[in-house]
Prior knowledge:
The protein is of the alpha/beta class. Helix 4 (86-98) packs antiparallel against helix 5 (102-115), helix 6 runs antiparallel to helix 7 (136-149) and helix 10 (187-199) packs across helix 11. 45% of the residues lie in helices and 10% in strands.
Amino acid sequence: GERWHEGSERKRMRGGGREIRADDSMSKILRPAATLFLLLSSLSQAGTAVPRNAREVVVNSASFASDETDKPLDFSLPEAARSMTGEQLYFIGEKLLLEGRASEAVAFLSKAASLMPRDAFTHSNLAISLHQLGRSKQAIPHFKMAASTQLDSLYFANLGQALWSVGEIEEAIRVLETTMRLDENQFGSLALLLQLEHYTASILSSWNRNYARARRALHVVLGKAEVSGNPADTVWTPSQILLLDVDEEYVLKLCRIHTNRNLQPSLHRFRYVRPSGKKRLRVGYLSYSFGLGVRNGLMYHVFGSHNRSQVEIFGFAIRPHDDNADDAEKARVEKNVEHFVDISRIEVSDIPALINSNNVHVLVDICGLHANGTMLYKSLLAFKPSAVQVAYMAFAATTGASYIDHLVTDKITSPPDYRHHYSESFIYMPNSYHVNSHKQRFKTNVFGEKELVGRRSKEGLPNSSIIYCSYNQFFKIDKHILRAWIDILRRDEKSVLVLVKFLFHKQAERNLRAALRANGINATRLILAEKLKNQEHILRSQLMHLHLDTRLQSGHTTTVDALWSGIPVLVWPARSMVSRAAAGIVHGAGLSWMIARNGQDYVEAAMVLSRSKAARMLVDAARSSSSLFNLDKWVKDWERSLKLAADSQAGGSVRHIIAHNS
């Protein structure tokens, strides 16, 4: 999302800004227009300085702004303003912008820009007004004019964000790099620059420079934010900081600051009903929907697999059904969840009381406090509507929230020695914390060697080569994993690497091919495959020899998909939870020998596993015998864990829960 805030007075006035005085003569000019007169009279005290370039864009957006150019807006000037000077028009336009009246500001600033075509302040604020109205394409020429007229890092920062919002990624990166050369303290631009470099797999060339900057910046911004309590001061969002190879203590600090904004000044004093041995445990799930879109369908079969004699299920749906759900799917969803509650049409402030009125013993959040979505709904957890609140799966790190009691994980993904980096107590699942219903959803067709040869040819894959693949998105590629992949391709001279065409794949493909060429590797050995639906994707995965997991952010569902397809998965965990999830998954499948200890081990293991028929046989056997694909067992362990969590809270303490194998 976007965050706009005022810069300091010193920064606003720098760059030759001129003071404008709202004197009596200006009031006389505006006398025919009463509303404009009132607007100016609030600033007409003698000697009041009106700052130029009063606002800057500090945006860490993960999605494009919509450019609603098909919706006409009235940018016409009032009659009384048509004889004004450029300075007068600018003064009113800036005031309107500061008051949040961007559409009115555009009319004044557009005219001011035509009268003062080389005035950087005017073009900058006009561009900001247009950007606020979702018209970034129209804003970009004015951002460019401001930046070309006055060499100021703020103008380049704004231009870089606007270019990003319309999908001009490569130009945005170039502009943001210029921003950092002008001012290394433009931390918002640095955060966005790193994000874009990850998305386009261009991180290798700038890793050392920009990551050193990021680590220095984190010390500064987190210190400031801990004092102010303002999440905007952290610059990085919780999702963005997971892209940085930093200690977990930074993640915890940042997440704590961001969840503090959800704390209400006067929380409801809810009464909680304690679980009784004679009654069913009442478990509520908070989710955007409860269809196959829930965490890619991973939780879909969990809701219907609960032991209804022991557990009573409530589903609080922020969106009643997935957009593409048909009537049959909707009926299955509502049958899966014993009490299906559509909260989409209820006032957000009333939802905590609604949840509490259902006497829910344990509330499980599968939206994710820091995942993409509506912060308004996430804030309801701060009211603590349930005695026990649990975070599960959506965000692979600590929430930092004092009102979340437990985080669901396992001992490989979150080792006991790392507990001090989490604000929650753990619920340790006995195998992998990562649930799946692949056995219920997908066929188990296993291709014979002859069929594999035919299908590889059909897919345009070489039959005479080892085929490595990685189905993780480009932003998960860091310099360490890319160098390891280059070493693998260099040593395995006839091999190829298959990646998937995710967002920004054209830019990523260009950057990755350039990295291969720079290391003496034929760039055609990189193959970009089309993204397929789940069942087709799993069938195609059988054509590969080895899935290479990423390090900084490991695969989650992609790891399960690869194992279910029957191919080995080589993982290389770092320190963080998000980097260790794949290790927890392969450990849960009884395949811990696929976990590499370091980069050298990763490369050496790739040479062996990619050619090992025994490894493939063991992975194939795990599909039927391992706990990872045993949904019924996972649900039994899960229910026992939730019961232990509810009982420990009723006993007056919140402690780590360790569920043993059922």
